[in-house]
Design a protein that fits this description.
The chain is α/β, with parallel strands linked by helices and 477 residues long. It has helices spanning 38-56, 60-76, 78-89, 93-116, 152-163, 177-189, 204-213, 226-238, 261-273, 290-305, 325-341, 374-377, 393-401, 416-425, 464-467; strands at 3-4, 6-8, 11-13, 17-22, 25-34, 120-123, 129-137, 140-144, 167-171, 197-199, 219-223, 242-246, 251-255, 283-289, 344-347, 351-352, 360-361, 364-369, 384-390, 405-406, 408-412, 430-433, 449-450, 453-454, 468-476.
Amino acid sequence: MNLHRNLIAGEWVGTEASANINPSDTNDIVGHYAQASAEDARDAIAAAKAAFPAWSRSGVLERHAILRKTSDEILARKDELGQLLAREEGKTLPEATGEVIRAAQIFDFFAGETLRLSGEVVPSVRPNIGVDITREPLGVIGIITPWNFPIAIPAWKIAPALAYGNTVVFKPADLVPGSAHAIVDILHRAGLPKGVLNLVMGRGSVVGQALLDSPDLAGITFTGSTGTGKRVALSSIERNRKFQLEMGGKNPMVVLDDADLAVAVEAAANSGFFSTGQRCTASSRLIVTDGIHDRFVAALTEKLQTLTIDNALKAGTHIGPVVDERQLRTDTDYIDIGRSEGARLAFGGVRLERETPGFYLQPALFTEATNTMRIAREEIFGPVAAVIRVKDFEEALAVANDTPFGLSAGIATTSLKYATHFRRNAEAGMVMVNLPTAGVDFHVPFGGRKASSFGPREQGKYAAEFFTTVKTAYTLA
């Protein structure tokens, strides 16, 4: 058995292992990955704490070289790493390879950020006194990532943490340890000192809880469910620890009467169903005005009929499998809930059989839904979307904002007036006009409002807000 171990204090350790199963072919074992204990997690935190003084004062060229070398290797191995990602998570090979490339771009960006971190020099209101305002590393950072973007999300947390001089304890999602292990191995071989980056794979109830219970973490950055995010927040408040949360979404895609139908259908299909709908930025509420409703539903249904649902590694596959049996049950349960609430299942929603045994689900499209139904209120995290009919733009905007979440929102329209008004008034952290609600560039801020996010934005130069702390220093001339 080829055992992939945890990295603690610069050493690969661990004997107890769990099999990483391919959701496109449950007979295919991607690899065996070590399961860390709570004691392992505490050892990793201690190692990161011991490494922090030296790393936080390391030269920016050292950090730059390591991050740039990491970026170069990820890009050079994009096909290999894309295959690994597609096998363990189930997104199609083109999507997986694109995610790997994005991870390389993120490390390249933050390699540059090591050289761009700046401060301010301002005069004091008192004579002969200077004021310097600088940013310093926060400390030991706990990083907890989800399974749906197993290399991009770790990259956009690990890269800035290291760039700004922090040390890291990284706990990836239990379903996708392969991509996490690969990226840590690359960073380790790129020259990181011992203890600067520690990998602890394993159950959230064990490893994640050990991170939450630790008094030695200066910050935790978390992406995952709203329920777990609340636990991260409560534990951090008790320990006076900085925390950053990216959680759920129930994102609206508004389609107005004046929309270009082809553009609207493409945006809705991509937003709602690609990546098997397993994106926090997916549009699961399609809010459509009366004048275009019937044509839109017919065209979207026709589009869905052309999509190939199959093995993620097979050429021509548009949508891969659901990530595992548990998520598949969640999806099908919500499809049953939608029917029971009175929505009409206009297309799909059935489990599919393919050449290889896997968790295949035909995309489900509901019509005659209302915004009070559970399928319109609760995050499903699968290829399930509901069409909600409204009379005009004003009602569409009101329905779009009538949600506890606020991550991403989209609109399809040819009206500059309505596009501008929607951009200004949509209660979301990100707004897309005539584009899918999923898909954010690596150098711009990512995050939402309401129950979707808490704390500073991720990505780009805005990452410094979380991963650094501000110091104001006075000097008498």
